[in-house]
Amino acid sequence: TITHWKIQRFLARKFNLVPDIINLDDTSVLLHDDTNCKEKCSLCKRHKIMVAAIDVIWSYWVDFFESNKIEPIFLEKTVWDSELGYAGTLDFFGYVNDVLTLMDFKTFKALYDDHSYGAQQAAYSHCLAKQGNKPNQIALLRLNERTGYEFIPILENWDLFERALTEFYKKVNP
Asked: For the chain, what is the HEC assignment?
């Protein structure tokens, strides 16, 4: 999302880091600019609504950042386990208030209690641990235009991830 890109860009520039997959100079993620649109198209109307929502969500990110001690180590870091045959890209690994934290940014209107977040983060945590970087806490940072920000600690769910990986390989290699 655009908000996600803005957060990563902000952190990367502030802490002089280079994310694995986000090009910080790529502004194609930005929305249609209505200042030069002669037709005042429907995209312009959606653009104004989205920009307003992004600005509100961004203000919540700033509140979170200013209210907490944030020190990233990795941003948008690709991690993998070649033995188990999976890879993924984590959002943030670093310190939140001096606690080594694996954190995922979510800007959805709703979070679902299906434990998939714990499975996804368990996979990332496993890869980090193999590199000697085991997090002390795992959390979601939910940024929502209506509710502000929520720092939500979550539990790893390695069993769910392992079952999902097994099912995936059964389908790919029957």
From this structure: CHHHHHHHHHHHHHHCCCCCCCCCCCHHHCCCCHHHCCCCCHHHHHHHHHHHHHHHHHHHHHHHHHHCCEEEEEEEEEEEECCCCEEEEEEEEEEECCEEEEEEEECCCCCCCCCHHHHHHHHHHHHHHHCCCCCCEEEEEEEECCCEEEEEECCCCHHHHHHHHHHHHHHHCC
Per residue in 31-83, pLDDT (tens digit) is 445 555 555 555 555 556 667 778 888 999 999 999 999 999 999 999 999 99
- C-alpha span between 104 and 76 (Å, rounded): 10
Residues paired with residue 152 on neighbouring β-strands, in sequence order: 140
Neighbours of 156 (CB within 10 A): 20
Confidence bin at 4 (pLDDT 50/70/90)? confident
- Which one, of 159, 160, 153, lies nearest residue 103 by Cα? 153
